[in-house]
What we know:
Mean pLDDT: 82
Helix content: 25-40%
CATH class of the largest domain: Alpha Beta
Strand content: 15-25%
Order of helices and strands: HEEHEEHEHEEEEHEHEHEEEHEHHH
Shape: globular
Amino acid sequence: MDKDIALNALRGVKYPGFTRDIVSFGLVRGVEVTPDGGVSVNLSIATNDDAVVKQIGEAAESALRSAGAKSPEVTIGVTRPAAAPQQGGVPPPAPMPTVRHVVAVASGKGGVGKSTFSVNLAVAVARELASRGRPHRAGLMDCDIYGPSVPLMLGVGARPEIDADENIVPVENFGVRAMSMGLLIDPDQPVLWRGPMIMKTIRQFATQVRWGELDLLLVDLPPGTGDAQLSLVQTIPLSGAVIVTTPQEAAVSVARRGAMLFGKMEVPLLGVAENMSYFEDSAGQRQYLFGQGGGLRTAGDLGTEFLGEVPLDPRVREGGDRGVPVCVAHPDSNAARAFRSIALRLLQKLGL
């Protein structure tokens, strides 16, 4: 028995409810093998479900025995994610003590405009907080590692500075403090990373960025249910998650599956938002190009609130391309009003 054999055995242990194993999820923090064939394994899991801890522990021990380990010992460190506070309540303790609330913005599939949604929602939140005398209190963490588009859409491109304490200073525009992998690599450089590097980057963004005092930090996640999503949940106690979908069934069905990850990881769903809901023609008539009601059905299926519809407006795309979000360039447009309405409801749900 050696370390490689032990790790290969642990790759056969699936996280309950998922097809991925505990090694690829980054839950194995240490493996020690003694000369007599004994194995000690250290795991780290973020969950409030003791049944999950027990199931993983027993499965890991069984897998190691089957691989030839003598009296395997599995030690599991458990992090208990904090539930979202009630309106007006005290925010939960977090490894980001200057940030009151962290909310993930997620989708089950690509192509639903999640990053565009995240940027405009962050700007809408920042403008609302500023109107209350709390400027510079909104942030956006771009964890879409493979396709970091937040810098373009937020109109920022300068490399972040490093302060005296070796912390990264986030860039800021339109009242939103932001950090993205797109600010740290050359525009034409591909990101060819496996799970551990993604996890390391998310931890760095959470612990080594000088976010300052924020009321709300939005986290733009990549589509799906991979390393970035699990790393975020394990690194930062989230106040909740917002699911973005489009009306058509192809997006709705995947959004439901994507949202289930947060339920399994004890992260509250704050609501579902529907992007590209309709197009308003020159006569003022709404044309439902991608179907109708998908977001509302998704919210109902997930037992959460439907936060609202964002129309399909060319000015949203133009604003993203120019780095001036529609909430700034066209604040009286229907799209900007929709983002503002969703921002207000989100702040209300968080007690802000």
